[in-house]
Design a protein that fits this description.
alpha+beta; single chain; Aminopeptidase
Length: 164
């Protein structure tokens, strides 16, 4: 729970990064506490869950990533990095760590959904060996976009293989 205020101030309340997020921007630290509670629950039921991303040099909280398990061998992932850290390779580094974790827990399928206009995120996915897959009809609500209806998304699947 002690991370909630920093989650809120570092990235979760920043409206400028929310357009392509599948969760609402946090309006208060209580929303960030709810995220921490959700994260704790995920970790109690699966071999992975949400992770916070910290800067190696100064320990600053710069974002989050993680695994959302759908079954023992299938999970989705995503990432969000604070705007002040964009363009410096942190999303790529975080996603590569998730792919390494996915191999270690022997996931058969790791995928990410991405808004087709989110070019920066698509580039990160491609750099981390995700490839676009046909998934007609895939849609997601982006609650910060101002559009209430589900929007079409692209599905990317990791090409990596489980470790032996």
């Amino acid at each position: 729970m002690s991370d909630a205020p920093e989650v809120f101030s570092a990235y979760a309340s920043d409206r400028s990064i929310g357009q392509y997020l599948a969760w609402p921007i946090h309006e208060s630290v209580d929303d960030s506490r709810d995220f921490v509670t959700f994260s704790d629950a995920a970790w109690r039921t699966a071999p992975g869950g949400p992770y916070l991303v910290f800067h190696k040099e100064d320990g600053a909280l710069i974002g989050s990533t993680g695994l959302a398990f759908e079954s023992d061998d299938c999970a989705s992932t995503g990432y969000v990095i604070a705007r002040t850290y964009w363009g410096r390779g942190f999303a790529t580094e975080a996603l590569r760590a998730i792919t390494e974790l996915s191999a270690a827990v022997r996931l058969e399928r790791l995928y990410a959904l991405c808004h087709p206009a989110n070019a920066a995120s698509i580039k990160v996915l491609q750099k981390c060996d995700f490839e676009r897959e046909a998934n007609p009809g895939a849609a997601c609500v982006f609650p910060n976009s101002g559009i209430a209806a589900p929007q079409a998304v692209e599905s990317y699947v990791w090409r990596g293989q489980p470790t032996e």
